[in-house]
Design a protein that fits this description.
By secondary structure, this protein is mainly α. Helices cover about 65% and strands about 5% of the residues.
Length: about 650
């Protein structure tokens, strides 16, 4: 350790003072490794000439700094967005809670009968000893109100038939009001209740479907600013809804905007993050979601009216107003767009906040132009196919082909479909478990608070796991843990219905801890698998798949769970096993730079780390990927460029 420290001290002397003073061992280091070691040890960069040894954006990022105040600011911006989105997404467990209810008998209420008298006289009891929720006895209640409770009870007929009712009374001991009680979303209107729940996921689906593609066209900052401007008034407006239809509309708009903000901030943060920092950063960002998750039951416990609760969870959105001054554009995206001056401006601001001094403008601009030249020759499958069409049809075909590029390029189609499937199952199982407290008969406040606390624990364990174990192996292990706990929970609820609910809650929360870690890894690995030009698009499309899964969750819990309480757990177990088998086919991405184009795509069929590069004749050629610090690098052909990577 002491020898290593002395070497680094000598390296600083080498880079800042006299090269002849450096030890022989330092002189033999590759130039890029000297720069990497140097930037880790000193805050004053070396002055460079116009020929900077830059091969990836990470090299430029080293000049700006990766652990300074600018990086912390970007992390805090995402943490704010994540907490806001978590509260808007998961709060409908309380906003739309369904209290106990029974038929509203207006003549008896007008006659002054107590709630107990109405339940005893008018409401039948089911086979489980509970009062019917949607039916009442077919009595003459106007006559009963005139003669009184005692006379009516003594003279009533036990074989009277049942009739449905179309208005209900609710038990307001736990919830003063909810969306359900506001618009009577029970019995024959129960499907509409599930639609209010699914509106959250529908909004996020639309949001991710649109904003990912638009973010890659207009930039991360533009879309985040627009969505933040929509999110703030829409979230407050939900509390002013005058009908269930208008409430659903505003909820969809709110979640569209929330999806756009969280996608843009996450992609920006990862694009400005050092390779060796991604595990730590992804863990911290996922924890911020869990903190927002834990805050929901705390706020809902003290605010029992749904309109007040909606206002309370909307107040944190005001923290997004300062984004206008502090949220930057992604320099990596600007370089891919050829906007070098704008990228230089953002890099200078980041270096200023971090207290760093950048190389000369001309050297950085030259380096950015070289990086752009490597990506501008990327294979574009949509361009040739669109030729020969009319203007309108050509534009439409080009848009569609750009949107579905990841599915059209055969070299990445398989992994794209696998990623989408894993995201679908992640959304289905995560939200299914999170919102299944009713079917396992536990306190919803305690269940959600412990669920958020368990997420934080699982994310710390995930950080240790992905730091020391490969991504794919970590995914496989976590999928299997979730599947096993869901299978055990279903078996216990089906065969031993009198099992203490605390044990069922333990199994459910254990599965939720595993699927939470899976979700966090899927966010990370999606950034690492796809190039900058399509990274936001890939993340948004993956989230669309997740939202489709989460849309099914309330229907599985509400409708299938009413038929058999163990049935939802069986569905979640089966889909999790499917995702586990598919995850084993994904390529490993640990320790690799974020790809700038379709290069650096690892091949799962080879033990050697392989990548694809554009080729004018065949579309892509496969070449071995070596570490940038390796002495042996792949030889580029006339149609390809060298592929390099940074490994820990």
């Amino acid at each position: 350790m002491k020898e290593h420290r002395n070497e680094r001290t000598s390296l600083v002397a080498y880079t800042n003072k006299d090269k002849n003073n450096a030890p022989e061992k330092i002189k033999n280091y590759p130039e890029q490794e000297k720069q990497n070691l140097y930037t880790d040890e000193t805050s004053e960069p070396t002055k460079h000439d116009d020929s900077l040894n830059v091969t990836t954006f990470e090299d430029i990022l080293n000049f700006v700094g990766t652990r300074g105040r600018w990086n912390v600011m970007l992390l805090l911006l995402y943490i704010c967005t994540s907490c806001v989105t978590a509260m808007q997404t998961l709060s409908y467990q309380f906003l739309g809670a369904t209290p106990d209810h029974w038929c509203h008998v207006e003549p008896l209420i007008q006659a002054g009968w107590t709630q107990e008298q109405i339940l005893d006289f008018a409401i039948p009891v089911d086979e489980n000893g509970k009062h019917e929720k949607c039916f009442m006895y077919d009595y003459n209640y106007s006559l009963a109100a005139e003669v009184g409770y005692k006379v009516s009870t003594a003279s009533r007929q036990n074989n009277s038939g049942l009739v449905p009712c179309y208005s209900r009374d609710f038990n307001r001991s736990q919830y003063q009001s909810t969306v359900t009680t506001e618009w009577d979303l029970v019995c024959e209107r129960r499907a509409l209740y599930s639609t209010t729940q699914a509106a959250v996921e529908i909004g996020k689906l639309i949001g991710f479907f649109l904003t990912g593609y638009l973010s890659d066209i207009f930039g991360r900052r533009t879309l985040v600013m627009f969505n933040a401007a929509v999110l703030i008034p829409a979230s407050f407006g939900c509390a002013l809804s005058f009908s269930v239809g208008f409430y659903i509309f505003l909820k969809v708009v709110t979640l569209i905007a929330a999806a756009g903000t969280i996608l843009g901030t996450y992609v920006l943060m990862m694009e400005t993050n050092a390779t060796w920092e991604r595990e730590k950063t992804s863990t911290m960002t996922a924890i911020s979601w869990s903190v927002g998750y834990m805050l929901i039951p705390v706020v809902a416990y003290y605010i029992r009216a749904w309109k007040g609760l909606q206002v309370a969870i909307s107040l944190p959105t005001l923290a997004m107003i300062p984004f206008y001054w502090f949220f930057p554009e992604s320099p990596r995206w600007l370089i891919t767009q050829g906007r070098f001056e704008d990228a230089l401006k953002e890099l200078k601001e980041g270096a200023r906040v971090n207290g760093r001094t950048l190389p000369s403008d001309s050297s950085l601009l030259a380096a950015m132009q070289r990086l752009h030249a490597k990506t501008s020759g990327e294979h574009e499958p949509e361009a040739a196919a669109a030729s020969g069409c009319g203007c309108t049809s050509q534009w439409l075909i080009r848009i569609l082909r750009e949107y579905f590029t990841l599915l059209m390029v055969k070299e990445v189609r398989q992994r794209t479909l696998i990623v989408f499937c894993c995201w679908f199952v992640s959304g289905l199982v995560y939200y299914g478990i999170s919102l299944n407290a009713t079917n396992i008969s536990v306190s919803v406040y305690l269940y959600m608070f412990l669920g958020g606390l368990g997420e934080i624990v699982s994310l710390f364990l995930m950080w240790l796991l992905i730091t020391h174990v490969r991504r794919v192996k970590s995914l496989l292990l976590l999928w299997l843990i979730c599947a096993f706990t869901m299978l055990t929970a279903a078996f216990v609820m089906a065969c031993y219905p009198k099992t203490p609910t605390s044990f069922i809650m333990f199994l459910s929360l254990t599965g939720k801890m595993a699927i939470t870690a899976v979700f966090a890894i899927m966010w990370l690995i999606t950034q690492e698998l796809f190039p900058t030009k399509y990274r936001s698009l890939a993340t948004s499309q993956a989230n669309v798949a997740s939202r489709i899964g989460s849309i099914f969750s309330p229907y599985i819990n509400d409708l299938l769970g009413d038929a058999a309480v163990w049935a939802p757990s069986v569905i979640y177990c089966a889909t999790t096993f499917l995702a586990a088998s598919l995850s084993s086919l994904l390529p490993e991405t640990k320790g690799r730079c974020l790809p700038e184009n379709f290069s650096l795509m690892p091949d799962t069929k080879d033990n050697e780390n392989m990548g694809y590069l554009p080729n004018t004749e065949t579309g892509f050629v496969k070449v071995p990927i070596k570490s940038r610090n390796s002495n042996v690098q792949p030889q580029a052909t006339s149609d390809t460029a060298e592929v390099t990577d940074t490994k820990q």
